[in-house]
Design brief:
This protein is mainly alpha-helical and about 55 residues long. The chain has one helix spanning about 5-50.
Amino acid sequence: MNDADEETRLRDHEIAENEAKRQTVGDIRVSAWAIAAAVVIGLAAVAWVLIHNT
């Protein structure tokens, strides 16, 4: 393998690592929004039940 091929392989590997990190951060962000939405919906449901139970 010549130097140009090795440099290209290393650059591609670094790009893949960076993309994996970005994907992980995006997944965490989406998960946080999903959890927050579920909590809000759950609290609204509990409040509705408490209001209509009296």
